[in-house]
Structures are given as C-alpha cells and as structure tokens.
Design goal:
The protein is an alpha/beta fold. Helix content is 52%, strand content 7%. It contains 42 helices and 16 strands. It has a six-stranded parallel beta sheet with strand order 8-10-11-12-9-13, with helices on both faces. A five-stranded parallel beta sheet has the order 2-1-3-4-5, with helices on both faces. The relative contact order is 0.05.
Length: 1024
C-alpha cells in the first residue's frame, strides 16, 4: 500500500535535512536533452572519488517527483546544476509548488536553502541543439531566462555573481568540469590534520545592543543597583560551591520578597566570582525579566544568539518550543552559566496589566484575581516545560531569582524537582546591614543601628537604603541616626511604630513614610512615574517635570529644565529612583512603584493621572486595527489604566471601546490582558453590570468581557455575563444588540458541545432578524445555524442554509464580522464530510491574515493539522499543530486538540527521546481541563497502554454523544465509534435526546414575546 503524498513516518532519518555521510554529489538538469552531459559529469565525479546522485540510478519510490527530487538534494553533500535550452517539467502542487516552477528550479532552491556547495554550468548560445530540445512555450521561456540569471547570483539580494562556466560544445563542457571537481573534492574530503580550534563567534548588534562573543559576559540589560554591594559572604560561598561540576544541582533559585537583594547578589557573583569558582564556562548570560517585552521566547532567542552567533533576525522567526529545543541542546553540550533575574514576571501572579505594581502580599494570594489560576503557574505551559528541562541541563548551570517559586520546579509535595534547589534569601548580616547604612553617610551608635535594622527591617537591603534616605534628610540633625530614632515627632524614627508589623508590612510602612517625607516636587515626580507601568526615557521624564508651572509663567517655564536634575538626583540618593545607563531610561523598583502608587492622596492621583493621560493621548501611534503585538497598543492601555485608577470609569470604558476593544479581542486574542485591564469595573463579579456607567456602554463592556471569558474559562460564568448584557438590551429594546448577544450565547453553547441549547438560541436569533429584516445580523445567524448543522452532520440542511448564506456576500461591518470566518466554517464543513481540499484552507487563511483575524486563523491552522493527521501525514500535521499551538500559547490560551495532535504526530515521527518521555507527555495531556480524548486514546494505544486508551476512547464517545441523537457531534462520534470497534470495545448504550430536559432560558419568553410583537407591528404597517 502506498504512503499518502509527502507522508513521513519518521523512520527514514531524513527529517533533519542532513546529507548522508557518503559524499554524494547531485546532478541537476533537464533530462534527455542533456543526457550526454550528465553521463560525462557522472563519470568525472566517480573519477574524483565522489559519488554521483542522479535520477538515472533511481528505483521505484513511494513518494512523488517533488519529494524524490528534494530528497536527492538533502542526501547530497554538494550540488551541480546544468542549464540548457529547456525549462523542464513543472509538477502541479498548490502547496509545495504554487509558482509552478520546474523540478530543476525547485532542486536549486532547496540546495540554496541548505547551503550546499554548488557548481553551475550554463549552455552557451553557440551550442548545437536539436529543435525538440529548445523551449517553445512563451511562459516557460520567460521562466528559463529568469532562472538562468538568478542562478548566477550568490544570493537573491546580492549583486555579486557566483563563479560559473559557459560551454558551447560537449568537448568544452568536458574540459571545464575537471578543475571545479578537483576543488570540490578537496572541499568535501576530510583532511588528516588536527582540526583548528573554533574561532569565537563574532559579536552582533541588535537594536542598538551589542551581543558579544562568548565567553565574554553578556547581560540583557546590565543590572543597575541602588547602592554598593556589601556582605553576603555566605551566599557567595554557597554559589561558588553550587557552580562546581561535582554539585548535582543544575538550577538554583533564590526566592525572597521584593527588594531583598536577589538581583544584586546574583549580578555580583556572576560578574565578579563565577569565573574564579569555575574556569571552564563556555559563556555567561544574564537576562532580566523586569524589562518591557521580556518573555521566555526573547530569553531563548538572546541566549541562542549569544551562544551560537546566529543572527537575532533569524531566531525571531522561531517559536518558543523550537527555541527551547535548541537551547537545551546547547546547554547539554557545554557548561554555560545562565542567570534569569526576576523570573516571577513569567508567572500568573504577574501576568496582568499592573504587574509592575503588584505587592508581595497580593502576589502570594492562593488564586489570582482574574481567572482563579494558581499564581505560581507559568503563563504558558511551554514555559513550565522549559523550566523543568532547565533543571536537568547538565553540565550547564542556571541561576534564578524570583519573588515566587514556579510550580513547575516543585513536585506534588511542594519539594524541588530533581536538579533544582530553592533557597530563601535572608536579610543581610547585622554588620553588613550597618555597613550599607553607613555607606549612605549615616552616623550613630553601632549597637543601636544593628539592633534597629535587625528588629525593624530584618536587614532588608532596599528598606535600609530608603531608611538611610530618611535619616540623611532628617532636618533637625541630618544623618544622625541616634537623634532620629529617639525623635517621636512625624520626622523621627520613634514615630514609625513598627513593632507589631511583619516584614512586608514594615517594609511598606517605611517606604510610605519615606514617600510622605519627600519634598513636594520630588514626590510629584515619583507619584507620576508610579502611575506608569514601565521605565521611561528622558523625553518622557521631562514631560512630567514637576517644576513646569501649571499657570502661564515665562520665568518659571525657563527655569524648569534646570531644576529637574536636582529633583531626579534627590530621588536617586534616597534609593527611590534608578537610572539604567545602557538603555538611558529611568525606572522605579517594583516595590517602590507599588507602595508609591498606593500612598498617593486622591487629589494627587487625579492631578498626576490627568497629566499621564494627556501625555500618552498625545503620542503618535499606528492605527490600532493594524496592531500585531501588545506593545503596539501600549499607549492606549496606559490611558485606560490611568483613567480607571482615577475612577473615571465611563471615560475609561469609552476609550477602551473605541480604541482597544476590537484590537485586543480579534487582532491579538489578548483575553487575559483584557480581563486584567477591565477587572476594576467588576468588583462583584463578571456577571454584574458595572456601576456609574451609561447603561449602553456598560452592556457593551460586559459583552466584550464575556468574549474574553469564553476562552479557557467555564462556560457558566461566560453565559451569565452574556445574559446580563442581553437583559439590559432587551429592556432598552436595542434589537441589533440583542441579536449580537444571542449569537454570542449560541456560539458559546456550541463551543462547549451543548448543541440543543445552541440551536434554540440560533433559531431565536434567526427569527428576530427575519422579523427585523436586518441583513447583517441575518447573515450571522445563518452562519451559526450552518455551523450547527455541520457539527451535527445534517448535510442536506447545511447545504440549503449555505445556499441562502453564501449569496449574501461578506461586506459586513468589521465590528460584527471578520473576514475568513465564513470560509473557516465552510472548511470545517467540508472536513467533516471528507471533502476538504487545500484550496478551502488557503482561501480562509488568506482572508483571515489580511483582516488580522487571529482566532479564525488559529482555527484554520489547527484544522489543517487535523486533516493531515487523518491522512497520516505526520510531518505536515506536526508542522500545522505546532503553529496553532504556538499561537495559542503566545496568548496564554489552551489548545488541547493541537497539543495532543502534535504529541501523536511526534510519536509517529519517532521524535520522543524515549517511551518514558512520550508516556509522561500523555499523562500531562490527560490532566488538561478539557482533554482531547480521541487523540489521547490513539496516543495511549500507540504507547501500548490499552487501559488508558479505552478510558479516553469511551470519554471521546460520550463527549461526542452530546445531547443524544440526533443532536450529536457527528464526525467525532463516528471516529470514536470506529476507534472503539478497532479496540474491540463495546459501543456504549447512551440515552437519546430527551426534549423534556429542555428547560427554558430565563429570558427566552421575553425574546419570543418581543419577536411576536415586532411581527405584529410589521404586519400592521404592511396593511396600511
């Protein structure tokens, strides 16, 4: 039995495109017209001790002509191209050969992609040829001439020609091939000399930052401490011992509350002690997750750019799982030292718009505010997987600092997994704490200083620095600790009353006191910066210059720029403001930002917040509908966040609705970010209407919130939110909005395979729009019904609905419809019937990409993966599933189908390192909230665990049974039935659909009554 087209079962060893060890040289050209030249060249290759790889040697293969030809290129260590007067065969394949190139040109493209050494021979104009060997088709003549010219170039954008030879006779060709083949032989055959030591990879510059060549130290960015490093001898010795090859721990994590000196300790050791502790580091790389845009994918790219010398532009094209594989391979090859600073920023606790302000006591809550997730989980599962693998990355060492320990590094008992060690970083030793305190020019009794710092600050470095700022600015006696600590006035230390507070409370209380003790202008600048969620450059800092007068005053306006440096210096000396000399940006320590933001008086928040709004509102930006990343809408988010802080909820909502809503929802699928941004509007739950906001825009906000909730969240709360909005629109008789809510509710039910509920709501929506004669909304309701009929296998009815739907066109408002949605639903319809073709997917994908319709695009790519999986085209299935899964994980979404489909494809490709690894992956996938049961059953069966396979096959059947015949997920039910029969498992006897179980929705009667009233009004109007 033949394999499907382009199928790969993973057993041929060629999936990595590495040539075979035998030095084969591929001869590429058209066939019969150059037969004599090919024979001469083949003999010459043999005579040079090499081996010709030519189609004449082929036996029958179970692959098509494209795959066969490309395999030859991949199996060869060099490539020789002869171009005559014919362009050659152009095989048809919309996916692999959309431009209808010849086999020869496809081979040349593959050789160029793989970087194979290439020799080029061109037939001259005076060469004798037979008429049948000259190209006659006009289109092919154009392609042949273009191909000849392109092959002469070293690269597509190069103006430099490669070395090539032109021959005008067979004899001339014979003479010309000898010398190049001799050079090729020297290039390919190993030389019996000691290999030279590899030269260090050259450094590269990326976005203004130099990435040096290892083993030179590379930091992204450099750490800027608020004070001089003091003490920590015990921790430095601890790190020295851990770094040694004999220590079995690969990953060491320092955990502590913010400001305890984790970053400063790891920076000090990495820059000044690591090479003394161990001399064989391949390189040292520091990465801070406190920077804007710092994520695991960026960490992997920069690490790989440093470790391998590869361009960042090349690595930017790769997704996190692929980058992780390459990074782990490098870490196993040589002993690298990687430092991950501030890793808590990749955890759920800090995956929110106001991450820079999250206090420690809130981050340590048992669940986060948005979706009741574990705060110590990584945002994306692929990041958890990478963290686990880093713990086993011997001989390399991974040093981590974090406010929280990622759950991925702990076993179910809460203990570190093998290869990982967690250490809670204590405060400084009393003598070191005193030394740090005195470094800020503080004087006083040594005994009193040490006692005070130990009892009230737990020798916390950040608090010591801020406390020193208070004492240094104690006006009755600047810098005199003894006088300050005895003073019970509002300026003195006795006033602080810290005795009954825990460490976090004492830290925050001291910071609040330091904040309140600031000079007015320093406090204003710090307060303003605390409202901004990221570091700022000098231009932004100047825009918030507190010395700029509120009222017109030319003299003060001239003086303002000169006074700003003094205010900035005051904040820096007090340990409250930091300046990064490399990025040239100003920032607050996360703890300082959180305390400062919470300590402002209401009138201060209002005044400074308005300044922030005015500034960011005035900044130019590209149209938000073109946005591709969260960074593209950062200014808009900052404005909405600030308005919410000012409790100007209606203004915030209007800004969100008209600037950000569609972009965050459809372009970016930024659902978690949306919930984080809007959470202040819903203090009593997502299904409650926001207060003090116009009812119309409040209903819109609830609708967008429900859309965000519908992804990766329980459908009950989503439906409850939709219903809240629906009831509001019913009361206001806003029928178009009622239709939107009904359509969304129907889609939500369908996504959770609650099919009868979905149908009932779709019919209500359809009847409403027929009555209203609203073509836009009628189209959307027909699309919902068509989707339902496709899922339940009602093919005749679906065809009838499509005949009504398709002629209506696609030119609907973007707020209601995104291009590609209809084509995506139609592609699924064709897939369910076994009629899907690549052209269906290509059309849907093209439209979705053009309209930035990200969720539809993900669905199309996932469908392509499932289609390829069904055809056992494992490699192509894996590629599509990988892309769909990466898109989901980029947004913190779960895609169990793509994730499990990918595992199944990888197993069949032999890409798991061991059966245990595959089994571990199957176990993990089984724990997902909504597992892909059928794919899991297939995977467990492949693993030989028939008990698990049976369990998931039965679960797949039950899920597909849905509400019972005829309201079943037809395609999945048939596939699950087929699987059960293959495993000799009896088909479950489940109850059929029971109409008596259909309880009316609380609002259903009101909607039907409204429709009847509208019909009556319409009929009365018609009779007039």
């Amino acid at each position: 039995m033949s394999k499907p087209e382009s199928a790969s079962d993973g057993t041929n060893g060629k999936t990595n495109h590495q040539p075979q060890l035998l030095h084969q040289v591929m001869i590429s050209s058209t066939g019969s017209d150059l037969a004599a030249h090919r024979n001469l060249l083949s003999d010459a290759i043999n005579s040079h001790g090499l081996h010709p790889n030519i189609m004449e040697h082929d036996s029958a293969k179970l692959v098509d002509v494209i795959e066969s030809s490309l395999e030859k290129v991949r199996d060869s260590t060099a490539y020789i191209l002869i171009i005559g007067q014919r362009y050659g065969q152009t095989p048809e394949c919309p996916r692999r050969n959309p431009d209808k190139l010849s086999i020869t040109e496809l081979e040349f493209n593959e050789a160029a992609r793989l970087g194979r050494p290439t020799l080029l021979f061109l037939m001259g104009e005076e060469h004798d040829v037979k008429p049948r060997d000259v190209e006659k088709e006009p289109e092919k003549i154009i392609k042949l001439n273009a191909f000849r010219e392109r092959t002469k170039q070293q690269s597509p954008d190069s103006k430099v020609h490669r070395v090539y030879a032109v021959f005008n006779s067979l004899d001339e060709f014979t003479r010309q091939i000898a010398a190049p083949l001799t050079e090729l032989q020297k290039l390919l055959e190993p030389q019996h000399v000691e290999p030279p030591q590899p030269a260090p990879a050259p450094h590269q510059t990326y976005r203004g930052r130099v990435i040096p060549a290892p083993p030179a130290f590379y930091a992204e960015p450099d750490y800027i401490g608020s004070h001089k490093f003091i003490g920590r001898e015990a921790q430095l010795q601890e790190l020295d011992d851990w770094a040694k090859a004999a220590d079995p721990t690969n990953l060491l994590l320092y955990e502590a509350i913010g400001g305890n000196g984790k970053s400063m300790l790891t920076w000090e050791w990495a820059t000044k002690h690591a090479t003394t502790a161990r001399a064989d580091w391949a390189g040292r790389f520091w990465y801070s997750f406190y920077e804007r845009g710092a994520v695991m994918a960026d960490f992997c790219r920069r690490a790989l750019a440093y470790m391998t010398g590869r361009p960042m532009e090349e690595l930017e094209k790769k997704k996190t799982p692929e980058l992780a594989e390459e990074l782990i391979a490098c870490l196993h090859e040589k002993p690298w030292l990687l430092i991950l600073d501030g890793l808590e920023r990749v955890l759920v606790a800090y995956h929110r718009i106001d991450a820079a302000e999250v206090p420690d006591e809130e981050a340590n809550a048992p669940t986060d505010k948005i979706l009741n997730r574990n705060p110590c989980d990584a945002i994306r599962e692929e990041e958890s997987d990478l963290l686990r693998r880093l713990a086993a990355a011997a001989p390399s060492k991974i040093l981590v600092s974090s406010r929280l320990t990622p759950r991925a590094l702990l076993n179910p008992a809460g203990q570190p997994i093998p290869g990982a060690k967690r250490i809670t970083l204590p405060g400084l030793r009393p003598a070191d704490a005193e030394a740090l305190f005195r470094a800020c020019e503080i004087r006083g009794s040594s005994e009193k200083i040490q006692e005070y710092l130990s009892q009230n600050c737990d020798n916390h470095p950040l608090v010591i620095g801020v406390l020193a700022g208070l004492v240094a600015n104690y006006l009755p006696d600047r810098g005199n600790f003894d006088a300050w600590v005895a003073d019970a006035s509002s300026q003195g230390g006795a006033y602080l009353n810290l005795a009954k507070l825990d460490l976090t409370q004492r830290r925050n209380h001291i910071l609040t006191t330091a904040f309140e003790a600031l000079p007015k202008k320093s406090r204003q600048l710090l307060s303003t910066l605390a409202l901004i969620s990221a570091s700022v450059d000098y231009e932004t800092l100047s825009a918030f210059n507190p010395h700029i007068p509120c009222e017109p005053d030319e003299e003060k306006l001239r003086e303002a720029p000169g006074k700003l440096p003094e205010t900035v210096k005051d904040l820096e000396q007090r340990g409250l403001l930091q300046f990064d000399r490399h990025s040239r940006r100003y920032d607050l320590h996360p703890v300082v930002r959180g305390v400062a933001a919470g300590a402002m008086k209401t009138e201060e928040t209002t005044r400074y917040g308005q300044h922030v709004i005015d500034h960011f509102s005035s900044l130019p930006h590209q149209p938000y509908e073109q946005a591709k990343t969260i960074e593209d809408v950062a200014t808009g988010i900052q404005v909405v966040r600030t308005l919410l802080k000012l409790e100007r909820f209606e203004n915030a909502v209007i800004n969100y609705l008209y600037n950000l809503a569609d972009t965050l929802t459809f372009n970016l699928e930024a659902h978690t970010e949306t919930l984080s941004l809007l959470q202040p509007l819903f203090p009593f739950g997502w299904d409650q209407m926001p207060k003090n906001i116009d009812i119309e825009i409040a209903s819109e906000i609830v609708n967008y919130t429900a859309i965000a909730l519908s992804v990766n969240y329980d459908h009950e709360i989503t439906i409850a939110a939709y219903c809240t909005s629906l009831l509001s629109e019913l009361e206001r008789k806003n029928w178009e909005a009622v239709s939107v809510r009904l359509c969304n509710i129907s889609n939500c039910f369908e996504n959770h395979i609650l099919l009868t509920k979905s149908l009932r709501v779709s019919i209500l929506d359809h009847d409403l729009n027929v009555t209203l004669d609203n073509r836009t909304r009628l189209y959307m309701s027909l699309l919902s019904i068509f989707s339902f009929q496709s899922i339940t296998g009602q093919w005749y009815e679906a065809t009838t609905t499509w005949q009504k739907l398709d002629p209506l066109g696609r030119a609907w408002p973007r707020s209601y419809y995104r291009q590609g949605e209809t084509e995506c639903v139609f592609a699924w319809n064709q897939f369910f019937q076994g009629l899907l073709e690549e052209k269906h997917l290509e059309t849907a994908e093209r439209l979705a990409r053009k309209d930035n319709n990200r969720s539809t695009l993900r669905s199309i790519i996932a469908l392509r993966g499932e289609w390829r999986l069904e055809q056992q085209e494992w490699r192509l299935a894996a590629e599509s599933f990988h892309e769909a899964l990466s898109m989901a994980r980029e947004r913190g979404l779960t895609d169990a189908g793509s994730e499990t489909g990918l595992a199944l494809a990888k197993f069949n490709l032999g890409q798991f390192h061991s059966p245990d690894e595959a089994r571990h992956e199957a176990e993990r996938l089984s724990t997902l909230r909504e597992p892909a049961h059928r794919f899991l059953a297939m995977l467990w069966r492949e693993l030989g665990d028939l008990e698990q396979a049976k369990k998931h096959a039965l679960a797949a059947y039950k899920r597909a049974w849905a509400d019972g015949e005829p309201f079943v997920w037809r395609y999945e039910l048939e596939k699950a039935t087929e699987l059960l029969r293959e495993m000799n498992i009896p088909i479950p006897d489940l109850p059929p659909y029971d109409p008596a179980k259909n309880e009316p929705f609380p609002w259903e009667a009101d909607v039907r009554k409204a429709i009847e009233k509208l019909r009556a009004e319409k009929e009365a109007e018609r009779k007039k």
